């Protein structure tokens, strides 16, 4: 998938004290600060879709601005849970989609009243062929003057991407649990230089929620994020990052040592902690000792041994990672509700047809709300590689073992059981080339 950023969902982290716990629960204040490189533009909002439903955009501008050549309108949904809830109340989100999302929704932070959580832009060219964007104003119409894209670069995972960037105003509304709030802020609208905006357009806010957390006489920078913009709620796809190595940058990959989902307990300095509260605007988090004890996190990167597991597939067969030693194994953490996961299926099928057999296997680990629709989907799509079904909030053993909170997540494991590739090397546009280096 030719997206500059990966849809990623929630995270948490913290430091603690192995000594006597005086002063907990701890309330950490998080102020809005300018992002000067603390996090890459990975934590962004995808413009233009990737949903498993057909979205509607009531009240948004629908006509291409006069003078815009080869123009196209893009919409970004800042708060998907609010959008689904109000769309269900308005009648254009069906019960099935609402029920899938309702398991993840914090009802206290949702209202059925219409909240403008949609960012709308029109991207195209001026009369000289230069790339420009028109942004939506507060009155619901496009502003009169365009903003020009300029070439720049973005670094991520030791790769440098050439992108086109336009710095734009990107206001929106969100419900803070009591009232609807108007949020204003600058953001970068970016797309890959070697692709069209329709393939890779992303919105990345400049302000980030940061603070400091002092534990056991050590002070660390911490950052709260959910797709780079509020609301932040205590939900699956919200993350708190902590700069454990004190290098001034946060490792935002879910499998790294500095990224933690806010819905799960975590271990720092030999003690287990949990997030008990998050201000909806992200201005603070509250941390207390967790009754559930967990082990310290282990970063899963190339060169480390892949954690072993044994599980039952939907076909009833028991499968073990250790039993697959001697062949390359790709782990695909996905869900039928995940647009980018569905987009990647054709390439996964190509890979399985080309490389599958004695030297290569794919194992799908699916995060679903119910079993029956998932099994029907496998039959409809003719997905033949082994699938492990984990029901949300009931059984997430393998996902927790691999610290998965963003979908899709991929790992490639070599015949000796060592992780050799993960992340973008296994993305839709790179998968066949990457596998070819190992299997041809």
TrEMBL record:
It is found in: Cell envelope. Its main location: other. The keyword Disulfide bond applies. Residues 300-440 form the Thioredoxin domain. InterPro entries: AhpC/TSA, Thioredoxin-like_sf, Thioredoxin_domain, Thioredoxin_ResA/DsbE_sf. The keyword Transmembrane helix does not apply. One of its GO terms (molecular function) is antioxidant activity. One of its GO terms (biological process) is cytochrome complex assembly. It comes from the Bacteria. This is TlpA family protein disulfide reductase. It comes from Gracilimonas sediminicola.
